[in-house]
């Protein structure tokens, strides 16, 4: 007998707690009727309640329940739906939660995450004493607008509809067909929102001599559309993400890229190399190739970068340490070698230049021939190179020449590093490394 | 010896995936963004979901929703983001939600220095939500530890159903380092206590044998008490949304059913439970590395990037004939009291080094002064070594302190 299997109510035995005449009781009964109509599995249904009087609602149902912070109910619901797209996730929130959590609602609408939002809209904060909310229309009196509200109301439906929500409905707690509309919204695959106007008999009704007739009249005064406002085909986000993920399933995730020493090195102490240039000129890429080359040569290497928040203007400084032993402290008090590539870089390395001694070496280009430092200077002329020098390969050719000069490890290690770390650009960068040899001859 | 040239962000993402993480929500912020990018790219490959939220509040909210649906959830941010996480950190504590939060520390206060190193969030994460309830925080001091401690964080989050912080800093996350791959140590990640599934697989819809139709009616064994902790320090078993039971989650003061209550007996027991759930299990979360020198009078204590300079200084000091001990803390919260007291024993002087105004120094002082008073002996001399200018504490600064 089919009749035997029906769940005749989704409410538990606990009596509703709301004030006499409160719209919440009506809407929750309509929700119960909708759930009965759909006969959803309570274990596959989650009621997410916001804060305020409506935040009590989840306790009167036999389904799963999540009662969280003010305004964040739609964000919790999004996480639940993303983690398990098979669940029916229904948000119960008030006009207060709509105000504080507006960004979550609009973004959920834009994403079309498949949750159903019931806004219990009674135009004021019932739990905290009848203060005005984002939906209090102009002119109405509340505890916080005693002389009449001067602010204009938020059009919840318009806000989510214009941002792509799949299903948008406005009605009142007195609508006879509300269970059908709620059931329709729950079954809708994308984001669904119902703005349900109702009476707060504790405050808004008292403060404004407001009743059913006045509320229905206010719909006309405000000129807001009612009934089904928007219903359109959408791509539900949780399902779409899982489908997109299916195509990537099984691909390797962050495998260890082990490096075994393939080249000898000539280092018996920590060596500090600083490359100072301009952002957008591939300073960090050249530094990474150099560091990785050191690891290929059996050394330990670190690289710490400094650059401004803009990524293609200003300075770019990379500090590299090579060591035959494990490197703990990664700071550099004084470089053993400084590669100076640009005016942007020069502005940041004054301390290094002052600290350097004749034991150390500054490797730079003719523009910086006269910078003050005690370090030995080696001036390179990348312009005379046998390959065309651009803003982006200039860092690599000077760094490569510097590594040849410093002779910490064979240049073949740098070439292998470029093959491995810049595989896509190896064909253009290997000739640059080859051409760097000639820079040291002049 | 096989090595890897890698940054801490990659190691954290790899550790999370190794720990079975299958949900990430975050909002871009330097210096934590590289973790977000790794997770969004790689989670779909393991059947997980990664999403960039509309803001930090949305990010942690989504993580909590997903975690209660059974996911192992991760989020990553920096100090300004933790400010926005604050209210939901309390929610995760109250609702007993497993969640790993990476706070890549950068220079504060406020927007501070987005790519400048600091360790200024140590007390912030401890007291960053209302009520002052205990949390767990781990601090890696190497890239290999980023990998291992991320797994450890998931293990603790799951077993104790609580948010766990991982507190690296900008230097560790964004700098390249060389790692001996043998140092990538895996941790067996436990599972949150689960209510046993009812007999006859309650997970799927029940089908009435006579009609072949689904039957939505609940059987008594498909409900349970979601906040039934006994003894008081035990982690209550749970069941995910969509699983074989009805689950109630709430952030308000609640009884064992998850219903709101103001009953002082029940509220008091709940809040005592939230404290003792962590504090009674301190011994299970004391992690660190003690580099003892039996001849040393001075013990250096540090964590994170700063501990790297400490360890270099200790080696150099000993090579120069000046003995010194070093304690690297991997657990910051709860304070690993036994680990610290054992390390301090025999030393007449303790120096706590950190990139802030002395956040952990006060914990060490509190612990050692209390301990001395209780045992009627003189405490060691305790001092701090601090730096808040965006530069690292140098080995030379440590050496100067040791020599002093």
Fold topology:
The complex is a heterodimer of chains A (442) and B (404).
Chain A: H1 23-38, E1 45-49, E2 64-67, H2 73-83, E3 88-94, H3 95-100, H4 102-111, E4 116-121, E5 124-125, E6 131-132, H5 156-162, E7 167-172, H6 178-187, E8 192-197, H7 204-208, H8 212-222, E9 227-231, H9 237-246, E10 271-278, H10 283-296, E11 300-306, E12 315-323, E13 337-340, H11 343-346, H12 350-355, E14 361-364, E15 376-379, H13 394-406, H14 411-421, H15 426-439
Parallel strand pairs in A: 1-2, 1-3, 3-4, 4-8, 7-8, 10-13, 13-14, 14-15
Antiparallel strand pairs in A: 5-6, 7-9, 10-12, 11-12
Helix pairs in contact in A: 1-6, 10-13, 10-14, 13-15, 14-15
Chain B: E1 3-7, H1 8-18, E2 23-26, H2 33-42, E3 49-52, H3 56-68, E4 73-77, H4 79-95, E5 99-103, E6 106-107, E7 113-117, H5 122-127, E8 136-138, H6 143-160, E9 163-166, H7 170-174, E10 176-180, E11 206-207, E12 214-215, E13 248-250, H8 264-279, E14 288-291, E15 298-302, H9 304-319, E16 325-329, E17 331-333, H10 337-344, E18 349-354, H11 359-375, E19 381-386, H12 395-403
Parallel strand pairs in B: 2-3, 2-4, 4-5, 5-9, 8-9, 15-16, 15-18, 18-19
Antiparallel strand pairs in B: 1-10, 6-7, 8-17, 11-12, 14-16
């Amino acid at each position: 007998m089919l009749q035997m299997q029906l769940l005749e109510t989704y409410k538990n035995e606990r009596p509703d707690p709301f004030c006499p005449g409160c719209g919440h009781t009506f809407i929750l009964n309509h929700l119960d009727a909708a759930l009965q109509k759909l006969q959803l599995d309570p274990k596959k249904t989650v009621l997410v309640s916001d804060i305020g009087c409506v935040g009590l609602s989840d306790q009167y149902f036999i389904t799963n329940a999540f009662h969280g912070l003010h305004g964040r109910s739609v964000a919790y619901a999004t996480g639940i739906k993303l983690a398990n797209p098979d669940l029916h996730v229904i948000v119960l929130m008030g006009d207060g939660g709509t105000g504080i959590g507006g960004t979550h609602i609009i973004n959920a609408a834009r994403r079309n995450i498949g949750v159903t939002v019931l806004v219990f809209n009674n135009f004021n904060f019932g739990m905290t004493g009848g203060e005005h909310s984002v939906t209090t229309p102009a002119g109405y009196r509340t505890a916080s607008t005693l002389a009449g509200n001067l602010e204009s109301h938020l059009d919840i439906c318009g806000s989510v509809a214009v941002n792509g929500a799949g299903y948008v409905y406005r009605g009142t707690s007195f609508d006879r067909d509300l269970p059908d509309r709620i059931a329709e919204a729950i079954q809708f695959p994308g984001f669904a929102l119902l703005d349900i106007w109702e009476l707060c008999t504790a405050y808004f009704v008292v403060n404004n001599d407001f009743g059913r007739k006045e509320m229905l009249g206010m719909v006309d005064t405000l000129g807001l559309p009612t009934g089904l406002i928007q219903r359109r085909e959408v791509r539900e986000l949780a399902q779409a993400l899982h489908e997109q993920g299916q195509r990537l399933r099984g691909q390797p995730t962050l495998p260890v890229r082990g490096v075994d020493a393939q080249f000898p090195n000539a280092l018996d102490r920590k060596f500090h190399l600083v490359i100072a240039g301009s952002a957008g000129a591939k300073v960090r890429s050249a530094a990474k190739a150099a560091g990785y080359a050191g690891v290929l040569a059996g050394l330990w290497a670190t690289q710490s970068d400094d650059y401004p928040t803009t990524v293609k203007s200003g300075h770019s400084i990379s500090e590299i340490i090579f060591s035959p032993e494990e490197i703990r402290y990664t700071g550099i008090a004084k470089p053993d070698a400084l590669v100076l590539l640009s005016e942007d870089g020069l502005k940041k390395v004054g301390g290094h230049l002052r600290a350097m001694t004749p034991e150390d070496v500054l490797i730079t280009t003719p523009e910086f021939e006269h910078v003050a430092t005690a370090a030995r200077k080696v001036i390179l002329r990348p312009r005379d190179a046998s390959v065309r020098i651009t803003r982006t390969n200039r860092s690599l050719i000077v760094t490569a020449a510097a590594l040849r000069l410093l002779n910490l490890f064979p240049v073949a290690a740098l070439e292998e590093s470029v093959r491995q770390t810049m595989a896509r650009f190896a064909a253009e960068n290997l000739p640059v490394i080859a051409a760097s040899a000639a820079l040291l001859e002049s | 010896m096989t090595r890897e040239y890698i940054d801490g962000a990659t190691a954290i993402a790899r550790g999370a995936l190794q720990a079975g993480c299958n949900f990430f929500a975050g909002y871009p912020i330097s210096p934590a963004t590289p973790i977000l990018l790794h997770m969004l790219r790689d989670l779909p490959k393991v059947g997980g979901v990664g999403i960039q939220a509309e803001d930090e509040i949305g990010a942690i909210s989504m993580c909590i929703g997903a975690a209660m649906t059974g996911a192992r959830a991760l989020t990553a941010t920096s100090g300004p983001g933790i400010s926005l996480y604050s209210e939901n950190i309390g929610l995760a504590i109250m609702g007993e939600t497993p969640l790993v939060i990476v706070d890549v520390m950068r220079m504060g206060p406020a927007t501070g220095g987005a790519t400048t190193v600091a360790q200024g969030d140590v007390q912030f994460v401890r007291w960053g939500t209302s009520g002052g309830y205990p949390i767990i925080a781990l601090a890696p001091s190497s890239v290999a530890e980023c990998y291992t401690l991320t797994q450890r964080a998931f293990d603790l989050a799951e077993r104790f159903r609580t948010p766990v912080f991982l507190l690296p800093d900008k230097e560790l996350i964004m700098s390249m380092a060389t790692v001996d791959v043998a140092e990538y140590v895996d941790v067996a990640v436990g599972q949150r206590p689960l209510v046993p599934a009812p007999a006859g697989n309650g997970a799927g819809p029940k089908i009435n044998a006579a009609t072949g139709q689904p039957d939505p009616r609940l059987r008594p064994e498909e409900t349970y008490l979601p906040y039934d902790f006994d003894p008081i320090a035990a982690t209550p078993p749970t069941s995910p949304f969509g699983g074989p039971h009805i689950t109630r989650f709430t952030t308000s003061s609640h009884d064992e059913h998850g219903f709101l209550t103001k009953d002082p007996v029940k509220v008091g027991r709940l809040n005592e439970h939230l404290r003792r759930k962590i504090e009674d299990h301190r011994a299970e979360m004391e992690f660190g590395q003690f580099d003892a020198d039996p001849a040393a009078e001075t013990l250096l204590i540090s964590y994170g990037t700063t501990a790297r300079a400490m360890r270099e200084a200790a080696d150099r000091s000993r090579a120069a004939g000046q003995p010194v001990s070093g304690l690297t803390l991997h657990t910051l919260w709860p304070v690993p009291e036994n680990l610290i007291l054992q390390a301090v024993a025999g030393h007449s002087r303790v120096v706590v080094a950190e990139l802030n105004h002395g956040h952990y120094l006060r914990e060490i002082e509190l612990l050692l002064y209390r301990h001395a008073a209780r045992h009627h002996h003189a405490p060691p001399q305790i001092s701090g070594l601090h730096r808040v200018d965006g530069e690292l504490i140098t080995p030379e600064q440590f050496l100067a302190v040791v020599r002093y």
